[in-house]
Amino acid sequence: MQALVEIIKNNFSNETALLLISMLPLIELKGSIPIGLVMGIGPFKTYMISFFGSFLPALPIIFWIMPIFDYLKKKKAFKKIVDRVTKRADKRKVNIVKYKYRGLFLFVAIPLPGTGVWMGSLISSLLDMQQSKSLLIIFFPNALAGLVIYTFSNLFKLSSKYISTS
Question: What is the C-alpha to C-alpha distance for residues 92 and 114, in angstroms, rounded to an integer?
Fold first, then answer.
């Protein structure tokens, strides 16, 4: 993943690179906000690019991932990959099954590794949750998670400045 981030950063403008980085699974806005701030992109611009970039994958995942998975499962080369991805999502869906949309909201809002738009969208699709409602539910907690990450990134940035000048 780090090599991919480097390729993106070296071949695109900072803003385009940040948008693409925020679209990557595992990184999403949790990683792209600190990256954007380090790249010197303004705080508001970093948040907005990271937020929208991280949300974009929800659209194809929610609307098209299940037909794609069904097709890929028929191909011997891809069956194991699809099974591994679905098994990983199955492990994380316990609270979403129990609490439905509230569970999905919390799952996406909590900025921890393995949670977020990608996995929330996948779980929503696996559970056959209403697509438009799922998109809305994913949109707002993604914004909230971004604010949490943004706040901690700025606090860390301020504390590291203070420590380095002391």
Answer: 8
Give mean pLDDT in consecutive 10-residue pieces for the chain, a chain of 166 residues.
83 95 93 92 95 97 96 94 91 86 94 90 95 97 95 73 54
CA dihedral defined by 97, 99, 100, 104, rounded to 10 degrees?
-90
CA distances from residue 159 to 119, 156, 162 in whole angstroms, order as listed: 32, 5, 5
User: Angle at Cα 22 formed by Cα 86 and Cα 71, nearest 5°?
Assistant: 30
CA distances for 88 relative to 32, 111, 147, 154, angstroms? 23, 18, 27, 32
Q: Residues in the chain, how many?
A: 166
**Residue 61 is which amino acid?**
I
Tell me which DSSP letter residue 49 carries.
H
Alpha-carbon span 54 to 19, nearest angstrom: 8
Separation CA 139–CA 25 (nearest Å): 16
The pair of three-digit structure tokens given for residue 30, joined into one six-digit string = 């949790």
Please, where are the H alpha helices in the chain? 2-11, 14-22, 28-38, 43-55, 58-73, 76-92, 94-109, 117-126, 131-165
Other C-beta atoms lying within 10 Å of the C-beta of residue 44 = 9
Q: For residue 114, what pLDDT is reported? A: 83
